[in-house]
User: What shape does this take?
Amino acid sequence: MKKTRSKILILILIILAGSIFSAMAPSGLQKKLPPYYQKIYQLSEKIEPEIIAIRRDIHAHPELAFQEHRTAAIVADYFRRLGLEVRTGIGGTGVLGVLKGSLPGPVLAMRADMDALAITEETDLPFASRQKAFINGRETGLMHACGHDIHTSILLGVAAVLSQLKKELPGTVLFVAQPAEEWGDGARKMLQDGVFRDYRPEAIFAFHVNDTLKAGYVHYVPGYSGANCDSFFLTIHSEGCHGADPDQCVDPIVVGSHIVLTLQAMISREIDVHDHTVITVGYFHAGTATNIIPDKAELRATVRSYGDEQRKILKEKIVRTITGICESHGARFDLDYQFGTPALYNHPELLKAILPTAELVLGGKDKIIQDRPEMGGEDFSYFAREFPAVILGLGVVPTHLEKTSVHSPTFIADEKAIVTGVKLMSCIIMDYSRLPESRRIKTIR
Assistant: This one.
């Protein structure tokens, strides 16, 4: 009996010793962490209050596209205090900060957008926007309802962290503060103005807030993740006549109605079902009275698709459809078809290269959500046409909400996402800059 008890006691001691050893030893995940991760974490948490304060200041003072003078000044001043090389006024109000590491390596870039929306804020945040502007003769509020204040503050945070790790940083990092994303023209203007004339990045990264995920999660889409944002503006002309004598003139409302319905039939019968396509006529204006056939009808539409070839095919089909219907009714018309922001392409191989970093920083694969492409637009696509690029969706839904809708007057975000974004992007840039040249992505597609 004593021997049995002794064996049991020894077994218990072995189990306890093993448990203690396991608790003291680093986990498998911790073993994989490069030594600079801990420095990044510590620096990120140290600057978190400062970065959040900057975010709140920017949020309280939103500025519309190409009017981001105050925000651009905050960004430029912060970069200068970090000792970065700074260029301002790029593409209007854009800012470039250049951080040169002490070790040889690639040129990488991170982009954030600065502009706000013409939306009157309806939150009870103590730093809610009270700014107003006159647009088309009407006063409206201004609001960071798409998270650009968060994007900009994360950009500053990453610049602050990596500037403190300059001795361990390979290559050069370009911090791009971009104007006018909401207009879909800021990135293009910066490229035209030579934002990368002195330093050409091998890859460029960005965040966009995700209004369906909690803080601590990210979302990604390989390949096309955003759509071409094209449009057409159509005016159908008529002499106009009395509503009781419709045979005396062309009815532009009837013609326009045929066009709206035929375009939807065209999508379902002439476009491959695998080629995501949306045509929405969001503006149809005609007439002033019930008994008058007007002298014109105006239609405006957005056309969404993926890829250059698809957008060309759609334009041909839409122009053919509108021309055929108008001619069959004997209606004169003016059609202005415009190509807008191109589809956003997330480089699959570049994405594959950085996802292991996201897994380490966020604490597991379950924190990284692959999603389907969206039909929304994002002018980061202009950069993605020039260089391998990845944009990640950063979860910002507050813990007490199921979701929070961007472009809404009630949009709010969990500020914990800011330090998460700073840690994650800092580690992505540090990890990717250390890859051998043979493993870094060299082609756009």
The CA atoms of residues 237 and 296 lie 4 Å apart. The chain has two domains: 33-226+343-439, 228-341.
